[in-house]
Each structure stands twice: as C-alpha cells, then as structure tokens.
Amino acid sequence: MSVGAPRALASSGQKPITEILHPLSAAEEPLSATVGGDKQEVGLTNGTPVETSSPASTSSLFNRLQLDDDLEADVRDPYADSSETRDLFVTVDDPKKHVSTMETYITYRVSTKTSRVEFDLPEYCVRRRYQDFDWLRIKLEDSQPTHLIPPLPEKFVMKGVVDRFSEEFVETRMKALDKFLKRVADHPVLSFNPHLNAFLTAKDLNKRQGLALLSKVGESVKHVAGGYKLRARPAEFCAMGEYLDTFNQKLGTIDRIAQRILKEQSEYLTELREYGSVYSSWVGSEDELLRPLEGVAGCVTTSCGALEDLGENMSQDFLPVLREYVLYIESMKNVLRKRDQSQAEYEGRLEAAILRKQEDRTPVEVEKCQDKMECFNADLKADWERWQSNKRQDFKQLLTGMADRNINSYEKSQAAWESLITLLQDKQTEDKTSETN
Amino acid sequence: MMADSGSNEEVAVIGNTDITSTESESNIINTMVERETALLRKMEINVAEAEKRTGKNTVNMQETYTVYLIEIRPAETVPGVGAPAAPDTLWRRYSDFELLRTFLLVTYPYIIIPPLPEKRAEFQWHKLSADNLDPDFVERRRVGLENFLLRVASHPVLSNDKIFFFFLTEEKGWREAVLETGFQDKADSRLKSLSAMFRVKNPDKRFTAMKQYSDELNTVISQLLRVRARVADRLYGVYKVHGNYGRVFSEWSAIEKEMGDGLQSAGHHMDTYAASIDDILEEEEHYADQLKEYLFYTDAVRSVCKKHDLIQYELEMAAQDLVSKKQQREELATGTVRVFSLKGMTSKLFGTESQEQRESRLAALEQSIQEGEEALKEKNTECQEFVQMAWEDIERFKEQKDKDLREALISYAIMQISMCKKGIQVWSNAKECFNKM
C-alpha cells in the first residue's frame, strides 16, 4: 500500500524534486496538492487553510524523500531536526456544536495525514472535544514523564462571564488545540506515543473517562510518594528554573501592557467615532466645504475601521499565544520538579544503600534509579533545546505579526487620507481653470 | 476697491503630500499677503518675538506680563537686491491689541473684525498647560497676533485706518491717540446693540440667515474642538503605553541568547514610537488654532448682524413714529379722534381747547413731522449704506472662510498622512529587529 511506497521511492536514490511524487499522493484519490506547488495543502482536502505553528514549511515534505539516510537518521536519533523528516501532519478545525439532553458541547475535526508504519491508514478524520484533548495530555504526561508536554488552552471558563459558544472563544480555543496537537506531532518521541495514535485514529475513545480518572489518581500518588530531598541541583537545571521564572514575569508584564494598549485604543476609538460624526453634522451648514468635510468624516471612519480590526486581531491572536506560553512555562517547571524528584530519589536510595553497607556492588534498584535520572536529564535537556528553538520561532512570528498588523492599520488610514487629498486637489485645479476661463 | 473675484489670487495647490503642515499654514498667510492692499504693498509685518516684563499696573501692583515685538519692514520691490533693511520695531502687549480691536469694532460696525487669539487657553487636552506664561502658549499666541495683524492689513477697508497704522508705527503716543478719537462713546451704543432684546419687523432675510449660519458654525466648531481635545488625550495614552514595551523588551533581552539583540533594538524603536506623539500633537495644535480663529470670527459675524438688527429697528421705530405723528396731525386738523391720546381725552372730558391752542399745537406737530421726515431719510440712508457695506464684507468673509477652512482641512489630512508614515516607519524598523531575533 501507500505506506510502503515512499520508502521504495526513497531507496531509488536522489531524484530531481519535480520528478518525485508527492508522498501523500501515493494514496488512491489524488490530493489537490500538485507536485512542487501548493504549500497550503497540508493535511486537508477541503481547501481550508491550515495554520502551521511550526516554522518548518511543508516543502520539507519533499526534502524528506531525497535521501533515505535522513529517514533512517530520524529513527536513530530522535532529536535530529525533524523539520527535514516530517511524516505526520495533523490539523484541528471545523468546530461544531452538539446539543444533547444532558449537555451542549463543541467538537472539532481532527485530520491526520501520515506515512508512518505505526498508522494503518494514510489519512484519518475524527471528531474530538476538549475533554478528549485533556485525556490525551494526561496520558502523555503519565507515559512520558521525562518529556515536556505542550500546554492546552484553559480548561475552565466561568459560565456567565465568558460565552463558551461565541465564535471568538471557539476560534481562539481551536487555534490553541491545533497548536497543541501540532507540537505533539512534531515531537520526535511524543509523536510515537500510542495514546496519540489512539486519539488520532479511534472512532470512539473508549473508557476514556475511567482511564482519565485513574490516571489522575495515579498522578497525585506519584507526587505524594516523592518524599526525597534534593541535595544539589546541577547548575544547568538551576539556570533553567531561573530563566523560566524571569521569562514568566516578563510575559506577564507584556500581557498587561498589551491589555492596557487594547483598552486605550478602544477608548481612543470611541472618541474618534464621535469626532467623525461632528464633521458629518457640520456638512449640513456648508456648501463649498461640503466635499472636504465629507471627505474628512470618511477618512476618520476608515481609520476607525482599521483600528477596530487591529484591536480584534491583537486580542484574538496575540494575547492567547502569550497566555499559552505562560502555561507552557508551568508545564516546563513541572517537568523540572519531576526531574528533581527523580534525582532526589536516586540520591536517597544511594545513601540508604551505602548506609546498609552494601559495598560489593550497587543494588539494582539504585542503578535503575540512576538510569532513570540520567534518562530524565538527557530527555529534559533535549526537550529544553527544542523548546527554546520553538519559543524563538513562535515569538519571532508573534512579534512580527504584531508589527505587521500595526503597519497594516496605518497603511489603510494613510491610503484614505491620500485619496482625499487627491480628490480635493483635483477639485482645486478644476476651480482654478474655471476661474481663469 | 479690492477686487475679490479671486482671479488674481494664487491658490495654494498642494502638489505633493510631503508638504509639511507649517508650510501649508504659511500658504494661508501667503494668500492673505497676496491679496494686496496699499498697506501691504508698502510694508511687511511680523510679530517676531515675545518677552516677559514686570512692571506696576494701574493699581500699583507688581505684575508679570508678556510683550510682543512688532517688526515693520519696507516691502521688497526687487527681491534679493541689496541687503534687507533693518526693521522698525516696537513692543506691544496683549491689552494693546485688545484696545485696537475694540476701536475697530466700534468704528467699523459693518465690518467683520478679525479676532484675536484667545486670552486664556481653552479646549486644552491634559498635557498642554493652561498657563498664560507657558512658552508653548506664548509662542502660539505670538503666531495668532501676527495672524491678526495680517488679517487687518489685508482687509480692503481696515487696512486704511490711521489708528491701525499708528499701532504699527507709534510706540509711545498710540494709546492717547486712540482715546482721543472718542470711540468709547460709540462703544456704549454698540454694547446696547449686542445685548438688547428687540423685535425687528422686517429684517433683511440675508442677515437673519447669516446670523443663523454663524450660530451653527459656532456650535459645530466648539464641539469639534472639544472632541478633538479628548481624541488627543486618548491618542497620547496609546502611544505612551507602548513605551513600556521598550523597558520590558530590554529586561527580557537580558535573559536571552540569540533573541537578545533583536529584542533590545526593537525595544528602542518602541521608545521612539512613544516619544513621537509629542511632536504629532504639537503640530495638530496649529489645526486647532485655525479652527479657533473661525470660532471667534463667528462672534464678529454675529455682532455685525446684530448691528443691522439695531439699525433696522431704529429705522422701523422712526417710520412708526412719523406715521403716528402724521395721524395726530390729521386728527387735530379734522377733529376726529382715531388714535387715543391723553390730551385728546382730557380735552374731551374737560372741554375743548381754544383755537390758538390748537393752532400752536399743530405748528409744533408740523415741525416735529418735518424733523421726523429728515430723521427717517437719514436713518434710511444709514440703513441702506450699512446693509450694502456689511453685506459686501460678509460676502468677502464667506469666500475667505471657505478657502481658509478648506486649506486647514487639507493641512489636517497632510498631518494625518505624516503621522501614518511615521508609524509605519517605526513599526517597520521594529519588525526588522524582530526578524533578527
């Protein structure tokens, strides 16, 4: 089937890119993606644009086919730059409201396209609700305790304060869920987790409630059981903790500033609207000045529109990403704490073993603990690097986005005023020529 | 007689939007100057400087006040030939200008006298101080006073006034000269015309319409200035809050490795952005000043219309008086009482008067009627002359207002474009820095 095809292609050696088939077009129905083209066509056949949060573009899809070395390299070293070897694409979109007698809730379509062996089919399409994402996250945390799991958007919203079914809320949440899933799918280890597989493929996530409860209990038990005290945290992990604390603080400040700006802009907008309406009302008393006054009123209105869009964009795209990173930081700190515990446990057991004077060889449990700790340290360091790199890209995108939106807003306004001047100038030369005639 | 057809006027055509608003403002002044009066053909007028003085006032108390330097230069017949002559200068304070204006108001009640800049700052947004000694306020007042002098000097009637000429040329003896004209006597009657409530039976409809228009203009410009001040306040807030990004980006860059430089420089651009609003709003004050001039102009228009009402009323009173006297004569002559008069009633009750008495009364009445007819003729002429001269000036004013306000709106549009361009520049710079993160 199509699963084997890409490998066959790859082993045939390097081919010029135009000759290499789109790997996903190896499936029976041709995708609307054309070879070498359509970057947009990631993961969806219905044409809706997909927002990829990772900077790795879909053209890397083609890179992946050139050298089978890369493929194997990917399997060998889970931390090789996965942007060159992506073979799992996920998207969250198409929110729908479900009304039942018990409750009302939203589901999202989760689409998967993959060439991985671990998946039976190359494409999947399932519907999931927030609860299911939450389940997935918990399972991932439990089964991969040494890894950083990306955050989910806030779970609880105060009913009556926030409309859970408003278009904006659903849109924002969906984007965050999409980002979450993409980050998991991009992770060289997490993406192979069987729970993710189940999440992406199963028609029904069976017994998820029970499992969720169980795993929650399990989690808290783990936290209680870690009663060991940490001696000396290695410097690099200390540095990570300090960085996270400071970064968290700065993000909080930026969030406050952004909110303040939104507030000031909204108040400015209110006054600006009234300002425009005064010009409109002036029009009634004038003859010669009619056109300039109407023109000014029009430009002010255009500027108001541009400002409104800016505010909406900032509150829908900018603020949620900031908040998500705060959650990410919390996750990361959690992982650091677990690492500390793992080290503490190892040190504790080692000390106990020494006290019991087992000198001939270190007992197995102590060795196991040491292994566990060292694995944890390695995973954490690797995840940290990847997180830093992703963070850099995410913030670069976020901030350039903010700059772009502001530029856009000014450009709209400038265009309106410039066309007014042209209009008035034309009238002026018109008048001049009619006067001299 | 100045031809105001506009055919010999250079309309300031703005060919490119890079013209600054100060250039546009000087376009307004230029068009005034080019409307050549005999006075302006002879001399150039400037209010060059402002200085603080202290002295004793009329109640012998120390006070601080500002004086303004008026410079008169002979108008250059051949520009650029020879060194420019040293100007004749004298100092005047605001109260001198006020006295001049009051003189003009009283002496030319049929002319719309140009207004002075405001005595105390009104319609301020919070940053600008309302202090009369504030250097920015003094500077704007200096410009306003120069504007006033140029308006008078370019007026076809006012520019020929001797007192105005002395104001520009005689520092010492001017006040005495003004007071010697005895204009204060007329000042009382003018006040009467402004405040009195009287019903005019047949007002000239054009004046009624003009009065209504000037009231409307007054209302709308006041509103506009009020809202504009609030808009300025809000805009100030938006820009300044962005300065906080500068600080937080700087702090954040300290904990980053690769992102640090980009963040730091972007922060500087945010500081620049926040600082840019000061100049932007300062420039906008010029626009506000142009609007204010016309706001104050509406008072002058109103007082001309009111003067017309008074003269018309006096005319109607004189006509009515004559009619009633003639009726009295008729009654005396024919013996019929049509109009009630006390004398008539008492003579009916207490006996008719003698023939001599009647004849002497008739003679006195004839005299009175003759005087009345003279007075009516005079009043009629006065009224007609007033209407003619006033309406001519109103037409001139309307044309001037249309042109000036049009220029003001265009220069406002240019200011907005400039503000947009600056905003785009700063955000583009910031975006470049973000891209380097």
TrEMBL record, chain B:
Signal peptide coordinates: none
**CC per GO annotation:** early endosome membrane; plasma membrane; SNARE complex
Alphabetically, the GO molecular function entries are: phosphatidylinositol-3-phosphate binding
Pfam families assigned to the protein according to its UniProt record, in alphabetical order: PX (PF00787)
| Coiled-coil segments on the chain, per record | 355-382
Transferase as a keyword of this entry, yes or no, is no
**Biological process annotations from GO:** positive regulation of autophagosome assembly; protein transport
- Sorted UniProt keywords: Coiled coil, Protein transport, Transport
Domain PX per the UniProt entry, residue ranges = 46-174
Family from the record: Belongs to the sorting nexin family.
Specify the protein name. Answer: PX domain-containing protein
Biological source species? Eleginops maclovinus (Patagonian blennie)
